[in-house]
Amino acid sequence: QSVLTQPPSASGTPGQRVTISCSGSSSNIGIKTVNWYQQLPGTAPKLLIYTTNQRPSGVPDRFSGSKSGTSASLAISGLQSEDEADYYCATWDDSLNAYVFGTGTKVTVI
Amino acid sequence: QVQLVESGGGLVQPGRSLRLSCAASGFSFSSYGMHWVRQAPGKGLEWVAIISYDGSNKYYTDSVKGRFTISRDNSKNTLYMQMNSLRGEDTAVYYCARGNNSPGYWGQGTLVAVSS
User: Fold this and answer.
1) Residue A1 has pLDDT above 80, yes or no
2) Long-range contacts of B74-79 (CB under 8 A, 24+ apart)
3) What pLDDT shows up at residue A2?
4) pLDDT, tens digit, 9 for 90 and up, residues B6-44
5) Contacts of B62 in chain A (CB under 8 A)
6) By CA distance, what is A87's nearest residue in B?
């Protein structure tokens, strides 16, 4: 099982703000930056947020990341239908000497 | 543009071996660390291994240590994963991804199915 815990699902109506949490520990999120990935149905994952709160070129500013202690969050503001996807947090874990992914959150636009 | 193309997947019996390849283009392959990440059918992402830009450092997830070997040939711009003693739980889509610390740009994946 993953060392990073996310809620299995989240939902909202178009235009709403949705937040996804990612809970870790002192050996990962507590001391490392966090990345977020978006996986649209049937496609490969795409880097959405890197170094906790940075967006790669082309990612809309509706997506934002933050971190506090051993938890991180991804916020999607102005939710759109094309945001329906699975979202994963990830970071390096110093105790495991491994990169770890969160359990994943499926976002549904109602 | 950056391109990563995985190949070598397929159906294999338990206990057998398989070698995956990832052909890279559109960037300086020898300057980047590379990862393998897998995703079992209907499941989440699982990081498998990383190799440094020059091949001198390698790390693996516990479940594949001693069975899988990551390697690279910078002269051919290609990343490899030698998978031995395959098990049913290794069934997954295997993605290669570019990144010195974390996976950034991903390929489209190749399916490995382990079954008798």
Assistant:
1) no
2) B74/B29, B74/B30, B77/B23, B77/B24, B77/B25, B77/B29, B78/B21, B78/B22, B78/B23, B78/B24, B79/B21, B79/B22, B79/B24, B79/B34, B79/B36, B79/B51
3) 82
4) 999 999 999 999 999 999 999 999 999 999 999 999 999
5) 96, 98
6) B44
